[in-house]
Amino acid sequence: MTLSDCFVSVVAPLSEDADIAESFIRETSEVLKRSYANYEIVLVDDGSSDDTVARVSALLTQIDCMRLLPLSRKFGVEVAISAGLDSAIGDYVAVVMPDTDPPALIPRMVERSRQGHRTVVGVRRSRGGEGPLQRLGAALFYRYCNRVLKLAIPANSTYFRVLSRQAVNAITQIRDRARFLRVFSADVGFAAEPFEYDFVQRRARPRKRSLFDAVGLAIGIVVANTTHPLRVASWLGFVLSLLNLLYIGYIGAILLFKQQVAEGWATLSLQSAVMFFCLFLFVTVLCEYVGRILSEVRSRPHYFALDERNSSVVIANEQRKNVTTRASEEAGS
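and the corresponding structure tokens:
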């Protein structure tokens, strides 16, 4: 069988994955070994408190073309993936979640990327295991992002994707502290193609994202990438200000033309309630943006790595062309 001459990197974030890390790594290694002359597996440990790092380190002497990058603490999956993208050297980079994504699909996705789709985005066929409220929220979120915010995030998209070297270089230039790969992949402007697939479950009891975490992620994506909620709050405040102005005029007219005026306790109470509701809403939106601004202006690195550990063979074929040179040649062809 002829092996492809392109260099493929696989970036996989790990977090408390001691139970599945070895099976995932061996499966991924076999897929890459059958398909590519040059490849690497970049594993980024996101501050696991179990023995994930120890188990993966033990595999470095058994499995070739593998690198382990343990982060100093838990920074979150988005930052862990970013650390992997910063380190990956392949012509094409696949981002794979160890507990749900099938490595066997990587060659097909890479081939589609080579055919002109610089970004191939994994889209899960179903949202099984989620409650009706969470599915409805997800549908509304994707509709809002695509129809209103124009963020071009495919519905039900996941972290599973293949990026060309040009796309990776563009994404790693974005230095936002809020690292949302699904938005960045679309934001850099390269053509993208959805790739439908079914989740695999490597755990007997799959991890589930809570409704609270899902809402927090949705808010983070919206706040980090658009000022639309702030603009809506501004327009709402403007309309309410006009209504209050009309109400003041109404009160003045009553005082001028009516001899006896009721105390109007109910009206004033209703007005106070509406005003406080709007005030709290505006404070909430403003706090989100102020917090995001403060986070962005901090001059801190996005992550800290404890060290980097390599397997016995880092590159399968040492005679291959320089990665940057190949990427440039493909871009010009």
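(Above: one complete record from the training split.) Residues 121 and 194 are 5 Å apart (CA to CA).
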